[in-house]
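User: Hi! I'm working on a homework problem where we have to compare a predicted structure to a textbook description. Could you give me the structure for the chain below?
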Amino acid sequence: MSAFSPTRRGLIAAQGYPLILAGVVLIILGVMGGWHWITGLGVVSGGFFAYFFRDPERAIPTEPGVIVSPADGLVIRVDEVAENEFLQTSARYVAIFMNVFDVHVNRSPVAGTVMEMRHRPGEYKAASREDAASRNEQQALVLESSKGRRVLVVQIAGLLARRIIPWVKPGQPLARGERLGLICFGSRVDLYLPGDSQIEVKTGDRVKAGSSIIGRWHEFPPQT
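Assistant: Happy to help. Predicted C-alpha cells:
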C-alpha cells in the first residue's frame, strides 16, 4: 500500500489493521490450542491497537481566519522563536505532546498547499523533553496559504514511536483539518506560525486535532 492515503478509509487508520489482525490470530490460536494466556494476549493487543489507531471524524471550525490544532494532546510549550531552517523568520510556536492514549492521526492546521516535506533521522528521546525538537527523528511539512503565508508542522517521534507515516505529498492542496499523517506510539507535533498570528492556547491546555482552535490570523479577531 502507498504511504500516501489522503482519503478516509474507515474508523481505524489503515496502518493499524495488520497489528489488529495479529491479535485476532493470537485469539484463534489460543482458543484452538486451549492456551488461555495466548487468547488473553490476543484480546489485549488487538484491543489496544484498535484503540490506538482509531481515526474519528472531527467537526472542523468554519469561522474565517482560525487555525486548528494539528494534533490531539497536551500543549507543553507556547513561545516566540526564530525559525531559521524553513520559514527563516520569527514565529509563534506551539508544541503538543501526544501520549499513547491520544489519537495519533495529525491534521492540517490551515487550508494550504504542501510546499515542502523533509524527513530527518534522529534519536528517540521522550517527546516531552525540550531537546526532542532538535535531536529526535522528525518529518517537517511546510504549508502555504492562498495569501502566501507559510506554516510549519513538524511531526516528532518519541520514546516509543518508531515510524512517522506521511499521507500527503508536495504540491498537494489540503483543507483546514484534513488528515496529513500518522505517528505511531507516543510522540509530539510542533507548530510554527507567522509572527503576527494570535495564539489562543496556553501551556497545560488539552487540544484535539482539527477541531480545537489554536490560533488566528491577525486580521481575524475573535467574533463577539
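For your comparison, note the following. The two ends are 47 Å apart (CA to CA). Residues 66-216 form a domain with the Glucose Permease (Domain IIA) fold (CATH 2.70.70.10). Good luck with the assignment!
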